[in-house]
Amino acid sequence: MTKEIRTRFAPSPTGYLHVGGLRSALYNYLFARKMGGKLLLRVEDTDRTRLVEGAVENFIEVFDWLGIHFDESPAVGGPHAPYVQSERLNLYTEATKTLAEKGHAYVCFCTSERLEQVRADQQARSLPPMYDKHCRKLSKDEVDARITAGEPYVWRMAVPDNEVVEVHDIIRGDVNFETSTIDDQVLMKSDGYPTYHLANVVDDYDMRISHVIRGEEWLPSTPKHVLLYRFFGWEPPQFAHLPLLLNPDRSKMSKRSGDVAVEAYRDKGILPDALLNFVALLGWHPQDEREFFTLEELVNEFSLQRVNKAGAVFDQAKLRWMNTEYLARLTHDEMWDGVAPHLPSELLTESAVRVRYAVISLRPGAESFQDLAAKVVEAFAPADISNDSWDEAQLSFVGEVADGLSTLPAGTWNDFEGLMAEFKAAANSAGAKHGLKGKGIWMTLRMALTGREHGPELGRLVGIWGREGTLNRLHAAIAAKLSQEQSP
RNA sequence: GGCGCGUUCGUCUAGGGGUCUAGGACGCUGGCCUCUCACGCCGGUAACACGGGUUCGAAUCCCGUACGCGCUACCA
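ok -> structure tokens follow
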């Protein structure tokens, strides 16, 4: 029987979810689901200096928003709880003891000052900065004595000499490392907390992780992990190192250029499904040329074999396009529900039917709920026509249109389609009476009604404003022009 | 500096020896539609890093070079 597929997303609680982390989490999720396995969330909080309050709760909340659910996590628990490393310290202590007994770990008393000095010397001589294994030759008696004396110390791994460590990577194939280039990595810090290297190996084994799918930045430290598995006598998991997510300048994606927090995209109005879809396509592609996928479809299509090796630039413009596409596929009800919370309270005094009509009329091309809300607000904004100058004909034409509209049966104003036709007819007949046609008609009306050269179709705006709003605008425009003539 | 990974249009990518005068998408751009803007529709632009091999034949295989990126912490 084959081993159960178990993957994990193991972030450190920095306070927000990085989109690169999201991509890793997503691929872990897709792979686990596809293979009928489990996905777990494990919090790697072994660096006490970087703890952020509420970070774990935030992760859970954001993943919930995204619709990615973990089979085992700090929130839902599971057979390998706890899923927070700071609550598993005894495991790491035990593991260290095991390594020490086998001679694979040793105590090091070197101060950070000395380490810095060593590094500086090596740099000066153009040598690779590595620990000089100074404490590896300390006698057991000396070690015991110094520990008893209360001297602070760490545990380091004893990397063997002159060996080649082979890392099997699903995405990159076999990658070899000379042990002479591998540092005697610290496993246990002086504060009693493990480093990432020790903790992730111990936990991945303990939690029976079958596939470690993580960012490429971990590839160089993987031989250390492989060595640890060997020291412990454990079978290592399969590794898959994902290509990095890049800034436009092709450096590793960072806060430097643009947003990296999933929360920032959520706040900007990016839909969770759009974000997931977009991120899934960064470094992976399906067999055909489709590019719109639900989470379920992604699960069906996903395969680690189709993950690319080269890093991918996170293209904000394409994300925006994808979000626009997702928005366009929403029903009117869904769109209304999304936009309504972003509308200012002033608009509540307007008829709900007309505000809703505004949302429906203005939605084509909207990039986000916020974007559409802004367009709605703009549509209701008062006109300022002081910069436009009219001749006599235009002035009477606008009056004529106002008269024509005021005689429309009340019911017409509630029938948006019919109103559009009536409005057009009124404008055309008034135009004919005053020698205006085509652009002369429409641009004059557009300026009178909105004060701007560009904007939504007037026939729709009239419906959005309603009888009173429309006539008010027309009368206000006429009044403004008349007073302008009197006081030049 | 050392180690490692990578390299197809500006960007995301298809391509796994002939079907590639290299396909799709975003972007940009021309036109159409039109009361304007946007939307929509139609079209265009643009790439196999370089040099050697292997082969009848290479974007596809091999080697080298260049360039880019990552790692090089008692951070993950």
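Chain A is about 45% helix and 10% strand.
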